[in-house]
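The data are set out underneath:

___
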Amino acid sequence: MAAFVVLLVAVWGVGFLWVHGDLKRGGDQASAQPAEPSAGASGAASAAPTPVTPTTPAAQPTYTGVVGPAQERKAVDVNPEPARPRPLALPPVAQFKMATFNLLGASHTGGRGKEARKASGASRMSGALALIAQHQVTVVGFQEMQGSQRGAFYARAKGWQLYPGNSLGSGDGENSIGWDGNIWELVKPQTISIPYFNGHVRQMPYILLRDKATGVQAYFANFHNPADTRKFRNQQRFRSEATRREIELFNSLQKTGIPMFATGDMNEREEYFCRVTGSTGLKAAAGGSNSGGCNVPRPTQIDWILGSPDVQFTAYGIDRSALVRRTTDHPVVTASVVVDALKFKNSYAPGAVTVP
């Protein structure tokens, strides 16, 4: 009985302490903490500080090598990786075919001359266009392209353009440059005054064209220097002056850093070749050289195609076929050309057209 009473008292005491908050669960703290003593009424010094039970630091997350999305974004923003350099793009290479083509002016047929039996100039334009298509040329220097012939050209040569064509005087238009507008675009048209028969001045063209596919630009100049004929005799001094002006133009164009080409019926063979190549450094599509002496290409024509020293002529042709003979009294002279823009500092500008 006595043991039962002692047990009852012990249970009552524990319950009393729990209710008053002096006893905490074992999961919160190992043992009850004594109440902090307060200063006595007599003003005695404060009691000794309550001892603090040391706690275990919170466990740090284990590094797994995986970066979270937030950390990854911050790392990219703060330390962006440098962009990979792109390979250096080289300037492009343009390839095309060109021609010089004396059409035999309309005034030379239908009369009493040696070419009177040929068809009219307008009719013969059909043959001229067939030859252009046959040779796949995209730039042509025309001589003796008189008014009716220009009219026929405009009517039948779809997509092609001319300069000066009909934009200047009728005589000036006889010496025009034609180009396929699907391949080339006109950047800058210009003319130069050249003495023609008996020194009468004609405006002859030199233009800057841009190849639409590659962006490569090139100058094209076209001339017809006066010949000695039964009607016009002793024209040498006018040819010499014409050549002098042409040389001056060629040297000026070469300074632009853009490739240049010249076409024309110069009415001279050795004289023209030796003088021009010796004074400008230009080379002829027909070959020949002027280093250590003038070596004229054979056979030697009066119809010339010349170009800057760094252009490449890959083929040269002289067409004297039956169709040519029905169309004109000159051969059709053609050349295939390669222009590497890397060799001409101003021949190519990405996204823009350079006009010096």
